[in-house]
Amino acid sequence: MKAALVIVDMQEVLIPLVWQGVELAGRIAALARDARQHGVPVIAVQQFGPSGSMFDPGSPGTRLSARLGLEPTDVVLPKTATDSFYRSDLAEFLAAREVDTLVLTGVATDYCVDATARSALSHGLDVLLVSDGHAPAADGDPVAGLTAEQIIDRHNRILSAAIHPGGTLSLRAAADVVFRPG
Q: Which of 13, 18, 30, 136 would give a disulfide with 109, using CB separation of 3.0 to 4.6 Å?
């Protein structure tokens, strides 16, 4: 297994909007420190959108959260869709380093994390979804009647049970993630 830690959309504008955003950023920062210590690449994917939108490239809120403690050696890749692979350099970056496993974290559980996990599997990669390393909106999905905790639990169960011809998806709590040099 040759892994990379992938951090999806942990941007300043989103931290206060997602469930336990500050705590989530802290868990992800600890994973990133550990990954670096073991020579595992840290990749932060950053959402951009049209001018005037929440993800306006010129808006300070689109900056990746300082709480992540990103280092100059970490890779930042821009994206414009929920799927971190769509029209981005993520697949090429991973292939060039012979990465076969994503340790996946970030926001939002029910949007970009879900889309990126499914896409990674379709790209033939294995995914270790950090079960407490992703979050939806703080208020969950009021229209569907789901709390944030229920959304996380539901996606953990659905994604870990999905069958893909490419890769496999497993779950692990942040405290149980062990990085090994590739």
A: 136
Residues tagged active-site: 112
Alpha carbons within 13 angstroms on the beta-carbon side of residue 8 total: 32
CA distance 108 to 29: 17
Residue type, 172: R
Structural domains for the chain: 3-176 (3.40.50.850)
Neighbours of 42 (CB within 10 A): 24
pLDDT in the model for residue 32: 98
What is the Cα–Cα distance from 130 to 103, expressed in whole angstroms? 7
Structure tokens at 111: 């949007």
Q: Name the strand (E) or helix (H) holding 36.
A: helix 21-37
- Whether pTM > 0.90 for this model: the answer is yes
Spatial neighbors of 92 by CB under 8 A, at least 6 apart, are none
Return the pLDDT at 182. 67
Q: Which of 37, 35, 15, 17 is nearest to 26 (CA)?
A: 15
Instruction: State the Cα–Cα distance between residues 144 and 73, nearest whole angstrom.
Output: 41
Using the predicted structure, report yes or no on whether residue 46 has a pLDDT greater than 80: yes
